[in-house]
Amino acid sequence: MTFAVIKTGGKQYKVAADDVIKIEKLDAQAGDIVTFDQVLMVGDTVGAPLVEGALVAAELLETKKQKTVIIFKKRRRHNSRRRNGHRQLLTTVRITEILTGGKKPSVKAAAKADKSEAVAEKPAKKTEAKADTAPAAEFKDDVKLIGGVGPALEKKLAAAGITSLKQIADWTADDVAKFDEELNFKGRIEREEWIAQAKDLIAGKAGKE
User: Function of this protein (predicted)?
Assistant: First the structure.
């Protein structure tokens, strides 16, 4: 099986036809055919640095945020601890063709992408119809759903009268300053975007994982 080594997003990937890989976010829509012209190697042919006339085509499947990566920083003897979360946007693609000699992606590949997109749309409508008839899921109002808030911080907030996401979502700048000082949060409310997180959770978006 012919393979190629491509470079995208500052990283290198060894790929073959029908491989599904996750790469740095691409500016395209699901179902689009995308191409990679930075081909470092095709089979036994090594580029200098790129293989002339080589191209790798792929179908974009989806772009979404990945699992939360927790970043914990601690400074010794300073009683300083910081815990932040980050969710990286990655694009998932399926390799459709490895081309050489200046060839372009075939019409067949583009047609296949259109067909896949149409098939994907069909069950989506069915799912949407079912969702309309299904009862709404019960909202869980738990401050620990905010990234970085654990049992210890939950107790601090409860002692100050804050027990729900709705309260945090309604905070003003004065409230942020007040609780930041009273509870000695040292700016973490703004740094970790608690208000935005609370609003997203109330709206039904995913919380920390």
Answer: This protein binds to 23S rRNA in the presence of protein L20.
